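User: Quick one: structure for sequence A, then sequence B.

Assistant: Sequence A:
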Amino acid sequence: MVKIKKITLFIILTILIVFQACSGIKNNIDADLRKKYDKGIELFNKKKYVRAIEQFQYIIMNNPGSKISIDSQFYLAESKFYNEDYIESSSEYTLFIRWSTDLNKIEEAKYKIASCAVNSVNDFQKDQKETLAALNLLQEFIDEYPNSKKINECEKLVDELRNKLAKKDYETARLYLKLEKYDSAIIYFNQIINEFYDTIFYEKSHIGIMLSYDIIGNDSLFINYYNKNINQIKTEENLIIAQKIKDGSINKFEHFKLLYR
């Protein structure tokens, strides 16, 4: 009986020793990760993003799913964002959103995902799928966070991207004018008028249609279009151009300037 008690006591003591040892190891690991995190934040604040990334990645790999790991995931995404690695940054923000319960940081992450898409957009001459994707992400953010402090910035970005899309169609319309394919030019100008009514190319497209009718010498179509749409033109510069086309006071050189302006 005494022997059994001694064995039991030995087992208990062994468990306690192992537990304390494990606890000590865990505390050492936690302390090491905290140092890594603090160092990462320090480097991030100093804009040393590549070195900050190393610190945050170490934490995520060595203690996945923990609070400090989730916090590190956010700053890993931030570091890649400010290092202008927008594709990877967007992926890191998405991972953060999946695990985090911090609503403020989730909102920030969703805004940054949209910003990544905006910053990845191609020049207007190229394929505009990225522009459309960025617009969709911005609109999703606006719909989900209508009271966000980021709304004004999002709406500004939406305007910029819509003007970018309109410019592509406008340049295509101008190209058709130069090629003397007036029907095709008018189709693109009308597309801008119908779809991009809130861009700087809206009035220019009305002028483009008037110019097309004037070049081909179709006075009846021109007058009909002018009378119907002149009230849509508000800026003084475009009103003067429309009036000059109507009066017939625009010469061939000015036609040329309008085509290439």
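Sequence B:
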Amino acid sequence: METHYLIDYENDGKNGLKGCEKLTISDFIHLFYTDNSKNTTLDIFTNHGKAELDIKKVPAGDQSLDKHLIAYLGYLVGKNANIQTEYVIISSDKGYDKVCEFLRDECGNSISVSRRSTIALKQVTQKKEVKQNAEKKTSVSKVDPAKKTKLNQQIQQALSSSETQYRPGVMNEVAKVVTSLYGNEKFMNDVHNALRGMYPEDYLDVYGDIKSILSKYATNQDKKADCDNKTLLHNEIQQILSKANVGKEVIAYVPGLVIKHCDEKNDLQTIYRAIIQKFGQKKGLDIYNRIKKHI
């Protein structure tokens, strides 16, 4: 799946580009700047990973850059209408959130669009968590060292027994990150964001393999927040199915089905039966096996 990053350079400057060196060939950077942009130094673009870089200078003026960026976002949405694509506006300006909400309302489940202040999710999550912990002491609960050790062991065991063949070192890396975040108020969400920053291509497999373990160590509030984050879950299921090339009909139907039933008592059973009924036993079972660990 392609990901397009639209950078409001006038708002955040080079800070918004943190993490761009880790981008892949499926990523695209569209950088917008004006003569008013702070510290416009093109030497910082010597390392933007494997992503394609497109620099656009627009006229300075009252919200001129915002208007050009939004217009180009609309152009990309129309251009890529038949392609699984994610759009991320990189800016600290929360005014863009209304634009993202509008596009999601108009386009429904066919679009993934969001805003954040930097390309790198991991760095943002960590900095935000540090700030929250400093301002609100209750956001991190006291951690039992014995439980932390057990969590580390269970994470490594789950990854070692996974059908996915991870490269050497991944088990230790993941276990270290998970245990460092254990005790956070939004433990599962923080782990998800950290893994996405570490493994852009494989984080869904990693998170899916350990999600059931994470839920055992999360607070009731964290579990509810994880289940209620339906946009995140929808995008995960959509990406998994797109990667599996199961067909447009499946991609259009299954994510919405999962969202509809994800908080029900017998959610897995209900989702399984609905998929089998619509796509038949063989194809339905294949689809269900691909998504069940992520629900």
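The domain at 2-116 is CATH 3.40.50 (Rossmann fold). The mean pLDDT is 81.

User: Thanks, that's what I needed.
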